[in-house]
Amino acid sequence: MTALTPGRAPQQPDWSDPGLLDEVRRTLGSLRPLVTEEECARLSASMGRAGAGEALVLQGGDCAERFRESNPCDVGRKLDQLYHLARGLGAAAGVPVVPVGRLAGQYGKPRSDAWERVPDGTVMPAYRGDAVNSPDADPDARFPDPARLLRAYECAERVLATVRASWDGRETIERAHVSHEALLLDYEHPLVRQGSGARFASSAHSVWIGDRTRSVEGAHVAFAASVANPIGVKIGPTTRPADAVRLSRLLNPEAIPGRLSFIVRMGGARVRRLLPEIVGEVARRGAPVLWLCDPMHGNTVRIGKGLKTRPVGAILEEVVAFVRVLRSLRRHPAGLHLEMTPEDVTECVSTPRPFSALPPLPRYRSACDPRLNAEQAAEVVGRFASVL
Ligand code: PEP
Ligand code: MN
């Protein structure tokens, strides 16, 4: 696809050992692809059906996947949740639902703040995902270690084995695929492989570009433009309509249905205020895109000592606003992108705001952003189905 001069790459770790990094990149370049070109093409076809309004997409999983959860038991539970929600949405909407996990590679995190003050007052580098450093509150553990990129590959390989085992007895469109944010270019670039025609990212069936790295001139967008996989771009509140148009053309120059998803994450009020013009301009002047709703990242609030949470009420409101805006412009609301877990966590809060007291969050286990638990995720998917 498009060849571009690589631009600036924001949000890259300050790797502690450049010699080791080179060796790791060479090793990654010699390993077998994690996913096949055919698997990616099947997801493209399914996404194409969603683009045509004949299917929906349910993308979801942890904010930050953990290496220690790459075992069949933990992954099996995550897949059960994804399949269960997809089945419910499909039954309610009367169309097939494409399940896509934040799985098998969601090991790199962009951070607004490069530093973190831990509860005892020590300041240390922020956690950037298991592929970079450890979330432990220990300055040594926070050093970016390039060897972790190889562990990310190995863990992704294990997760994929469980994902593929779950395909037995399912129609192609109902099979779970894997996706993650293409953030760590020292992982993504060496894993690009030549396919039968185009080059493809062999790190996942689909990757997306985050809201902090979606600059049209930046290295992440250039990377996405250079691979044939279905790709996504997060569309946050600072996205100008003209940026969205340029991104759509740059990332989908051949106007392939299902190639490009815009994953809108603004918060409900901004969806109502800003999204109509973006959707309208992309429809008028841009290339085809699938519109997905991430109702999580525009609804994060800090409480107490900086702990992040998300009010479920605000998440539901954004889902409703998203569907109404898309419908009013005669576009298909093609699906949801959620941070969720089958675990019985209390990370997002169901009580209405403003909080009269700090909501108790006794089972907060996320290494990064607050996830919906099983019940909350079902409520959000149910709301989406009911307003469709
Ligand atoms: C995420 O999906 O975890 C994330 C960091 O999202 P965004 O780029 O939209 O902030
Ligand atoms: Mn997140």
Descriptive overview:
With 388 residues, the protein is α/β, with parallel strands linked by helices. The protein has one domain: TIM Barrel (Alpha-Beta Barrel). It has helices spanning 18-30, 37-51, 72-93, 147-165, 185-188, 219-225, 241-251, 268-285, 312-328, 374-387, and strands at residues 56-61, 97-102, 115-117, 123-125, 177-181, 192-194, 199-201, 206-209, 231-235, 260-264, 290-293, 301-303, 307-309, 333-339. An eight-stranded parallel beta barrel has the order 1-2-5-8-9-10-11-14, surrounded by six helices. Strands 3-4 form a two-stranded antiparallel ribbon. A two-stranded antiparallel sheet has the order 6-7. Helix 7 links the parallel strand 9 and strand 10 (260-264). Helix 1 (18-30) packs parallel to helix 4 (147-165), helix 7 packs across helix 8 and helix 8 (268-285) packs parallel to helix 9. It is globular. The protein starts with 17 loop residues before the first helix and ends with a helix. Phosphoenolpyruvate (PEP) binds next to loops.
Q: What helical percentage do the residues reach?
A: 25-40%
Question: Which small-molecule ligands are present, each listed once?
Answer: phosphoenolpyruvate, manganese (II) ion
DSSP helical segment count? 10
CATH fold-level topology: TIM Barrel
Strand order of the largest sheet: 1-2-5-8-9-10-11-14
Q: How many domains would you count in the coordinates?
A: 1
Q: Average pLDDT across residues?
A: 95
Family: Belongs to the class-II DAHP synthase family.
GO molecular function: 3-deoxy-7-phosphoheptulonate synthase activity
EC number: 2.5.1.54
Protein name: Phospho-2-dehydro-3-deoxyheptonate aldolase
